[in-house]
Design brief:
Length: 439
């Protein structure tokens, strides 16, 4: 996925993952005026060295962002998003040009592997990503094109800079010790949005963008959706969620702000070196002790059946799907049945594999932790629809899993450092480029 150009506010690395980029349908061309539509779609919005960004590119991405963040495509919303979207598209053109100069290519297998990871991270079965696109009327080619660009940039950063970044065993040990110490320290679960300011002339517009995003979230738009589309920190892949934070892990200025917040509260824009932050305090928890920490290390094998609910479905349709999920929850007998019923419920269903209990969202972790093996959960309502889960196996973390855990920590620290490098690279590319913004 695209290497974000921001940086995480955490002082210690966390696992970074490719995010599910929520893509929206392209604007429909009205058949009554094909020539006018063609002219509008080819009008140049910006020239970026030898490439162009068309008005159609901007309009399509604006619709994408609005759909992903749950906002209606009103004229006011579209106008508010244009400047930010155009800047993002310009950066993507610069990244693509630099990748092409280095002969970086993306194979079909790399694309397929990336999609598979996205499905796993978003609790989808095999084929779930394409099913999600089809369900939301998103052209598959549009999604694949953006994913390829993100993979390409990530590969370039790793090829050029990964060898110069080393993570020692001592650093991994320190990260593990800090996590274990969390069992006796009060924690806060925090989410972030980071909007970079690359030069002083952009500061006013970025500050306005931060205010607009806060206004939209207070009007009902969900924080994770906004973070996935706008944040330039590594945490954007997880909807901005930084997980459980101990005292001392945040920058002191941000720490003081979080200390004064209540669960569910959204901060004002926070000006910091490099850009603006928006913070959300999700919840607080008191130390749970070593027993709870050990429980978090449990590995569970999960399967799910998803009864999808179309976007904008009527209350009658939602109730109908809820009843369908309740019937499945009552009639499924074992994990074999979960697989057999997948065909009837859609390709979002399937085997989720081995999952560490402590890596699950709090709501899901609470349910799975006490769920008997081989028994279905009541239907859980999510953005995808109604989900019925079954724990097929439960076991303590193995030595092999501990090795994977160390590898994940090393990868997170590497990604955090590559992220800072990527930010400098895109800033330098922008400074040396010919950029002519025409609309």
């Amino acid at each position: 996925m695209r290497m974000p150009s921001g940086f995480s506010i955490l002082r210690h690395g966390r696992r970074a993952a490719a995010s599910l980029l929520l893509l929206a349908p392209l604007l429909l061309v009205q058949p009554a005026a094909p020539l006018l539509a063609q002219q509008a779609s080819t009008r140049i919005a910006a020239v970026v060295n030898e490439d162009i960004v068309t008005a159609h590119d901007v309009d399509a991405r604006v619709r994408l962002v609005l759909a992903a963040s749950g906002q209606p495509p009103t004229a006011e919303n579209v106008d508010r998003m244009r400047a930010q979207v155009l800047r993002t598209l310009i950066d993507e053109r610069l990244q693509a040009q630099e990748s092409a100069r280095a002969s970086i290519r993306v194979s079909e297998q790399e694309l397929a592997d990336n999609i598979k990871r996205l499905e796993s991270q978003n609790s989808m079965g095999p084929g779930g990503f394409y099913a999600w696109l089809d369900q939301n009327s998103v052209p598959r080619g549009t999604a694949e094109e953006q994913l390829r660009a993100n993979i390409q940039w990530n590969k370039l950063m790793r090829r050029r800079h990964a060898r110069s970044i080393s993570v020692s065993e001592e650093e991994i040990d320190e990260a593990i010790e800090k996590r274990q110490a969390a069992a006796s320290v009060p924690e806060r679960r925090v989410a972030e949005i980071f909007l970079p300011v690359e030069n002083p002339s952009e500061e006013v517009e970025v500050a306005r963008t931060a205010e607009r995003l806060i206004e939209q979230m207070r009007s009902g738009v969900r924080f994770p959706q906004v973070a996935q589309q706008f944040s330039r920190a590594a945490s954007a892949a997880q909807g901005g969620d930084l997980g459980w934070i101990q005292p001392g892990q945040l920058d002191p200025q941000l720490e003081a702000i979080v200390d004064g917040m209540q669960p569910g509260e959204l901060s004002r824009p926070i000006k910091m070196p490099g850009g603006y932050y928006i913070l959300l305090l999700i919840e607080r928890r008191q130390p749970a002790g070593a027993q709870a920490a050990a429980a978090d290390d449990q590995m569970v094998s999960l399967r799910q059946i998803v009864v999808p609910v179309p976007a904008g479905a009527s209350p009658q349709i939602i109730q109908q799907r809820r009843q369908q999920a309740e019937e499945l929850s009552r009639t499924v007998r074992d994990c074999a049945d979960m697989t057999a019923d997948r065909a009837a419920s859609g390709s979002l269903s399937g085997d989720l594999g081995q999952v560490r209990l402590g890596d699950m969202p709090p709501r899901l972790r609470q349910i799975v932790a006490s769920q008997p093996v081989g028994k279905t959960t009541p239907p859980l309502q999510t953005d995808a629809g109604f989900i019925v889960l079954m724990v097929c196996e439960r076991q303590a973390q193995s030595k092999a899993a501990e090795k994977v855990d160390r590898e994940a920590i090393a990868e997170a620290l590497t990604v955090q450092r590559l992220e800072n490098v990527a930010r400098r690279v895109i800033r330098d590319l922008r400074r040396s480029a010919f950029i002519d913004i025409r609309s």
